[in-house]
Write a structure and sequence with these properties.
alpha+beta; Heat Shock Protein 90; Rossmann fold; 3 domains; 9-stranded mixed sheet; 5-stranded mixed sheet; about 35% helix
C-alpha cells in the first residue's frame, strides 16, 4: 500500500538537534558504555578501574591491586603502579589526572607508548566511571608526593592538591574511590561478592604473579570471611588444572605454550580428560570472548592438523580411515587461550568475539609447534590422547547418522514439528515463547491455559537423559531430546544458529518438588552443554509456579515462598477459616490458575538463566552431574546444612 510523503519541513529545525557533550552523553545513555544500569553495570564500573591497574601490571610496573568495598558502598581500588601523571596536559590545559577523569578517549592506551596492550573500554573507562558516580576521589602517589582530586557526576569539584609524603618514602601507585550514582542505576541494586571474587580470581589466573586482594565490608555475613586473595604463579596452566577439577586427566600436566609473534603475545594451556565435553575459554587483553573469534579458530585448526599428522605418522590412524574432525580432537578438552594484542578488533560493543585476522595464524603457529613437540616427547600420553580422539570419531559417526535420520524424517513429514508440540500461531520468534512442561498432565493444563497466539507448549515425558554422562550419539537417540531440539529449531553444539531460533523465550516450567528440580537441572545441563548461546544471549528462563494457595472464602491468594505463606496465614487468620493448599504438581492447578500464577506475562515471575562465569558453571555441572561420586557427596553434605525446611 502506497503512503503519502509529507513535504512540510518547517517544524523540523536545528533546534531539534540535541548535542550531548562529554560526560552528559554518558549519563544520558549509560547502557552504551557499560551495558546496563543494573547489578552488571555496577560491577562493570569496578572492573573498569581494576582494568587500569591490570594494564599497569601488563606494562611491568605493578604487582599488587587491593579492592575494598566499604560499608557505605564506596568502592576503593589501589595499586602500586607508576601513578597517573599529574603534569599539565598540553591539549586540554588541565592536569593529566583531570584529563583522564573528565575526558572521553583520553588515556595512555592510544599511542602505544605507555601501554603496549590494554583491556577496559579503550581509554573511556575511568571517565565513564567518573560520569556515573555521585562521588569519586583520586589519589596519586609519585615523586615523593600524594596528589588528590575529587569529582562528582563527571565534573571536578576540587583542584589537584599535593601533599609531601614522609621523607624517604618512595611510594607509587593510584587509588580510586567512588560511589555509583543512585540516580543512574536501578533502585536497590546490590554488589554481589561472589561475582566480583570470581572475576578477580580470573584476572589473577590470566596475569601470573599479580596479587589481587579483595575485601567487602558490605558482606560481613559471608563465611568464613569477607575477604579473599588471589595470586597464581602458574598462571593459566593453574587455571586449566582448576577447571579440570574432578575430571580424570589423560596426562599429568597441562600442555603450555607462550610466545611473542610480532606484537602479539600468545599464551595457551590445555589438558585432555576422560569426559565427553569440551570447555575452552578465550581472552583478549584479559577480556573474555564468549563467542570466540579468530584466536579460537587458529587454536582449533592447530589441534586438528597436529593430531591428524601425528596419528598418521604413528599409524594410530590407518590409511583407509578418514581424518579426525575438529570436534573429535576436542572431546574432553579443557583449555584457556589468552592473547595480548596492541590493537584488538572486536565484533560489537560487548567484545564477545575477536576479529583480528592476523591473530588466527599467529595462534595456530604457536599452538601447533608446542603441541607437536609435546606429542613427540610424550609418546605414551600422545597415544592415549589420539585413541580418545578416534573413539570420539566413531561415536560422532553414529551421531551423524542419528542426525541424518532426524533430517530425513523431517523431510518425509514435510519438515513437521514434533506431534506433541502445541505450537503458537505467531511466527515472529521475537514474540514467541516455548514452555517446556513436565509430563502430559501439566502439559494438558498448560495447553488449555496458554495464550495460543504466542505461547507454545512442549510436554516432556519423564526425566531426560543426563547428557553430562553421554556422548552425542546416545543423546540424539533419546526421543525427548530429539523433540526438544527440533522444536527449538536452531541446531546443536557448533551447528547452533541463533538466527534459526523459533522462540526468543524458552521457559522451563517444572513442578515445585524434588523431581521437578531434578528435571530442571537435567534440562539446564543439556542447554549449557549443547545450546550455550541460548543462555549467553538471554533466551532461557525458568518459570516460578506458586508453592501454596492460601484462601479464605472465595478469594485465593498465592504464596511463592514459605515466608509469603506464613504472612498470608497470619493476615487472614483473624478473619475466618483459612485453607492452605500445597501445589506439588502443575497438573493440580486448573488452566485458569496456571495462567494467572505462572503464564500471564503481566503477573508471572520468570527467572532469566545467565552465567557470570562460564568456567565456574562448567565445574559445577561436572561436579553435580558427572560420573565421580565422592566430590558430589561431599558437596551435598556440606550444603545440605544450609537448607532449612527441606520439602521432600
Amino acid at each position: 500500500m502506497a503512503t503519502e510523503r509529507l513535504e512540510n519541513t518547517s517544524g523540523y529545525t536545528s533546534e531539534d538537534i540535541q548535542v550531548l557533550e562529554g560526560m552528559e552523553a554518558v549519563r544520558k545513555r549509560p547502557g552504551m558504555y557499560i551495558g546496563s544500569t543494573d547489578q552488571r553495570g555496577v560491577h562493570q564500573l569496578i572492573y573498569e578501574i581494576l582494568d587500569n591497574s591490570v594494564d599497569e601490571f601488563m606494562a611491568g610496573y605493578c604487582t599488587t591491586v587491593d579492592v575494598v568495598i566499604h560499608e557505605d558502598g564506596v568502592v576503593d581500588v589501589r595499586d602500586n603502579g607508576r601513578g597517573i601523571p599529574v603534569d599539565q596536559h598540553k591539549k586540554t590545559g588541565m592536569s593529566a589526572v583531570e584529563t583522564v577523569m573528565t575526558t572521553l578517549h583520553a588515556g595512555g592506551k592510544f599511542g602505544s607508548k605507555a601501554y603496549q596492550v590494554s583491556g577496559g573500554l579503550h581509554g573511556v573507562g575511568a571517565s565513564v566511571v567518573n560520569a556515573l558516580s555521585s562521588f569519586l576521589r583520586v589519589e596519586v602517589f609519585r615523586d615523593g608526593n600524594m596528589y588528590t582530586q575529587e569529582f562528582s557526576k563527571g565534573k571536578a569539584t576540587t583542584t589537584l592538591e599535593s601533599t609531601k609524603l614522609i621523607e624517604n618514602v618512595k611510594e607509587t601507585g593510584t587509588r580510586v574511590k567512588f560511589k555509583y550514582d543512585t540516580e543512574i542505576f536501578v533502585q536497590g541494586v546490590e554488589i554481589e561478592f561472589n561475582t566480583l571474587a570470581q572475576r578477580f580470581k580470573e584476572i589473577a589466573y590470566l596475569n601470573k604473579g599479580l596479587e589481587v586482594n579483595f575485601r567487602s565490608e558490605l558482606h560481613q555475613d559471608i563465611s568464613p570471611n569477607n575477604s579473599v586473595s588471589f595470586k597464581f604463579e602458574g598462571g593459566i596452566a593453574s587455571f586449566v588444572e582448576a577447571l579440570t577439577g574432578n575430571k580424570m586427566p589423560l596426562h599429568k600436566d597441562p600442555i603450555y605454550c607462550e610466545k611473542k609473534v610480532e606484537e602479539t603475545i600468545v599464551e595457551a594451556a590445555f589438558q585432555y580428560n576422560d569426559s565427553y565435553n569440551e570447555f575452552v575459554t578465550a581472552f583478549t587483553n584479559c577480556v573474555r570472548n564468549d563467542d570466540g573469534g579468530t584466536h579460537i579458530t587458529g587454536f582449533r585448526s592447530a589441534l586438528t592438523r597436529v593430531m591428524n599428522d601425528y596419528g598418521r605418522k604413528q599409524k594410530i590412524l590407518r590409511d583407509n580411515e578418514p581424518n579426525l574432525a575438529g570436534e573429535d580432537c576436542r572431546e574432553g578438552l579443557v583449555g584457556v587461550l589468552s592473547i595480548k594484542v596492541p590493537e584488538p578488533q572486536f565484533e560489537g560493543q560487548t567484545k564477545r568475539k575477536l576479529g583480528n585476522p592476523e591473530v588466527r595464524h599467529q595462534v595456530e603457529g604457536v599452538v601447533a609447534e608446542s603441541l607437536s613437540i609435546y606429542l613427540e616427547d610424550n609418546p605414551i600420553e600422545a597415544k592415549r590422547i589420539i585413541e580418545k580422539c578416534v573413539t570420539s570419531q566413531r561415536a560422532r559417526d553414529a551421531a551423524r547418522k542419528a542426525r541424518d535420520l532426524i533430517i530425513r524424517k523431517n523431510a518425509m513429514d514435510g519438515g513437521s514439528l514434533p506431534g506433541k508440540l502445541a505450537d503458537c500461531s505467531d511466527k515472529n520468534p521475537e514474540n514467541c515463547e516455548l514452555y517446556l512442561v513436565e509430563g502430559d498432565s501439566a502439559g494438558g493444563t498448560a495447553k488449555m491455559g496458554r495464550d495460543r497466539i504466542n505461547q507454545a507448549i512442549l510436554p516432556l515425558r519423564g526425566k531426560i537423559l543426563n547428557v553430562e554422562k553421554a556422548r552425542e550419539d546416545k543423546m540424539l537417540a533419546h526421543e525427548e531430546i530429539r523433540a526438544l531440539t527440533i522444536a527449538i529449531g536452531a541446531g546443536l553444539g557448533e551447528d547452533f544458529d541463533l538466527e534459526k531460533l523459533r522462540y526468543h523465550r524458552v521457559i522451563i516450567m517444572t513442578d515445585a518438588d524434588v523431581d521437578g528440580a531434578h528435571i530442571r537441572t537435567l534440562l539446564l545441563t543439556f542447554f549449557f552443554r549443547n545450546m550455550y548461546q541460548l543462555i549467553a544471549h538471554g533466551h532461557l528462563y525458568i518459570a516460578l509456579p506458586p508453592l501454596y494457595g492460601v484462601s479464605r472464602g472465595k478469594k485465593n491468594n498465592w504464596a511463592y515462598t514459605e515466608e509469603e505463606k506464613e504472612e498470608l496465614v497470619k493476615e487472614l487468620s483473624g478473619k475466618g477459616k483459612v485453607n492452605i493448599q500445597r501445589y506439588k504438581g502443575l497438573g493440580e492447578m486448573s488452566a485458569e490458575q496456571l495462567w494467572t500464577t505462572t503464564m500471564d506475562p503481566d503477573k508471572r515471575t520468570l527467572l532469566q538463566v545467565s552465567e557470570s562465569d562460564a568456567a565456574d558453571a562448567d565445574q559445577t555441572f561436572s561436579l553435580l552431574m558427572g560420573d565421580v561420586v565422592e566430590p558430589r557427596r561431599n558437596f551435598i553434605q556440606t550444603h545440605a546444612l544450609d537448607v532449612e525446611n527441606l520439602d521432600v
